[in-house]
Amino acid sequence: MKDYFFYFFIFFVVCCDKTDDIGLSIQPNSDRIILSSYNDTSFFNLTCVKEDSVRTDEVSINILGSYKDPLFGDVSAGIALQYRLSSVLSNSFGSNVTADSVVLILPYVGHYGDTTQDMNINIFTLGEDIFIDSLYYSNKNFISSDFLYSGIKKIHPNTNVYLLGDTLSPHLRINLDVNFFEQNLLNTDIINLSSNENFIQHFKGLLIEPILPADINYAMVYFNLLSNSSKIEVYYKNDSIYNIDPSQNLKYELLSDIYSARVNYFDLESNLDTSVFLGAQSMGGYKLKLEFLNLNLLDSLLDGKAINYINLTFYQDQSLSAFNNSNDLYPPHTQLSAVRIGDDDNIFFLDDYFLGTSHFGGIYNDDEKKYSFNISLYLQDLLSGDHANNGLYIIPVGSAVNANRTLFSPRVDIEIVYTKI
User: Fold this and answer.
1) Positive or negative CA dihedral for 70, 72, 76, 79?
2) 378 Cα distance to chain centroid
3) Which residues contact 7 (CB under 8 A, 6 or more apart)?
4) How many CB atoms are located within 10 Å of the residue 235 CB?
5) pLDDT (tens digit per residue) in 31-55
6) Which residues share a beta bridge with 84?
7) What one-character-per-residue DSSP string does 346-369 give?
């Protein structure tokens, strides 16, 4: 392959999208080449590939919920989460301690899907240790232990909570089993409360799981478990409060914070017939693979030319989007990334990526329903033989912290702007 000189400068190329502009040809008296699979598939091959998993420990946002996607099938997300003492204790909670109520608080930061549907939730204690310094992936299965809650909750991720005259930020409140916390917190051996290390050994944390619906498109909700309001509130009484005012109670809090291990785990369909659609799915779902089938043709087209800019564009499949309850309910990804595939199917960021988003692209264009990438440096290295021609993966950005999926048209375009030399 030849070496090509690349001139990187900011400019805009204004062009019309005509039928005769598309195909494997050089535009007469022009300074650009357009290759497209729109009416010629000899240069590109697109396939949908199952992702193995994504890392999900100590992420910034945790996902809970489930929905049934007409193409991607059943999708669900659960959370394993440690809690720590708000203060270590050297004395017990008092004499004749009884629990009044126990409230789990999960602060919302967003959602994906239909929040008009109620969510079915199960909550257990964790039956195994999790560690903040360990790596966990989305396909991890956790052991559950004591049963703490099962029920249906309304989802209001954008609505403030009004409680006892106070206005609180949107959050989900769930009443947990009183007897468990009365026995395992309020009346446990004080040694279990003397340090967070001892407490985590005693109470390993919570396992919060959705119950997958039969045929209803439910929602995935996003929580910030690092928020100061992410906690378990335990309300209780003892002899002291009985003697002062029996109508009142005391409160102790268990916190999730930066020192608490927290892991998402996802359950997605793994044996889909990907011959009927092209897509990218977050949460360790699916990714789009692009293969260049005829680099020799491209090499010959570029003979005697210095490349200024190479733009690779993918288009959202509008017909499938309409079939899947529209972009309003299940919007596509706001950003995707293109990564090159190594010889062992490992992936590498493109050199273009490190020049920043304004150069590299990948942001969803809502007006034109497309994603565009500047792959100038990558294609130079590909044509020069510095990279093996194993293709590109188009993958979600933030795959572990969003539930989006994008459906693609079979059309992919590559536009090359050049200068004759």
Assistant:
1) negative
2) 26
3) 306, 307, 308, 419
4) 16
5) 888 999 887 778 899 999 999 899 9
6) 255
7) -EEE-GGGGG-HHHHB-B-BTTTT
